[in-house]
Amino acid sequence: MARKLKSDRVLFIATLLLVGLSIVMVYSASAVLAFERSGRPYLFLIKQGMWAALGMAVLGIVMRIDYRNYREPAFIWTSLGVVAVGLVAVFFSPPVNHARRWFGIGGLGVQPSELAKLTAIFFIAALLERRMHRINDLRYSLLPIGIVIACLVALILPEPDFGTSMSLVLIAAIMIFAAGLNYTYIVGAALVALPTVAILVWSSAYRRRRFLTFLNPWSDPLGDGFQIIQSFIAVGTGGVWGRGLMNGVQKLFYLPEPHTDFIYAVISEELGLIGATAVVICFLVITWRGLRIALRAPDGFGAFLALGLTTMVSVQALVNISVVLGLLPTKGIALPFVSAGGSSLLINLLGMGILLNVSQHASSEA
Q1: How many domains does the chain contain in total?
Q2: Which of the residues 56, 68, 235, 290 could staple to 268 if both were Cys, CB 3.0 to 4.6 A apart?
Q3: Residue 2 placed within a domain
Q4: Closest C-alpha among 349, 332, 299, 357 to residue 125
Q5: Quick check: is 19 in a domain?
Q6: Residue 366 falls within a domain, yes or no?
């Protein structure tokens, strides 16, 4: 008798909890701001609710599609082509907050860099499955990955989007490391990457200011340091139990864009240490279950795919929370499943749908 396919229920519940929290907290963080801008306090709530409903519908569909379809060369190269066209198209779109990361389709903002991460994971997972037996052969295994990632980063970095570019590189690095790359190459890559990142940071005026602000935000409390200082105040005044839902103060025009990149600060202020910790626990659960699925996947593609999808969410969550807490320089990276933003929410839920499908085929023993 064929084994009945079952998805990872724990992973699904953790994801659903974060999406539910998003609906509540986006409204709490944005109601006053939305009313001031448009006279409609439910503006961002309606948008987030629509994206969440669409994302959950996509998750429900994708989790029923065999993940092995995504390793077909025609699918992978078509996806990379679509992403490349989208990344070029954003340069012809009007800037939003001094960046060109979105273009409009039917009144909806689409961010192709989010899809780029997912497509890169498909490509790397498929290639590593076929070539990991010669992972230390740079020309055979690593050069194709390096070319694709370099091309994507070259299109994403000028948007400008340094955070997503580095996330993409880190996802690729973790997947390659898991394939068994020799430590000598890892150390060598790190030695090359560190000065490269330093040059990229120091050669850009706004990145240089962000880094200096990270070192001492109080050197410019009303300028570049304003956002992170307001984040510190929000987190610090939340205490253990928080001020209560809807009772936060920093979202009232102190913390810029509180419903997007700094929504974790609003959660910390209103729901306190308890609520902030609960969010971290949900991401830890997603990481745990994702790695568990990778270990139990029936083939190499499923294992690398699960690892890449888990890393995509975990790294983004770690960077966002670290920025809010002042552990990393400020970057425009959303908190997965929670921050307002349709493209990010949709792609992350799509990724979770694929991960849940891999879990259906996973073995019962690690």
Answers
A1: 1
A2: 235
A3: no
A4: 299
A5: yes
A6: no
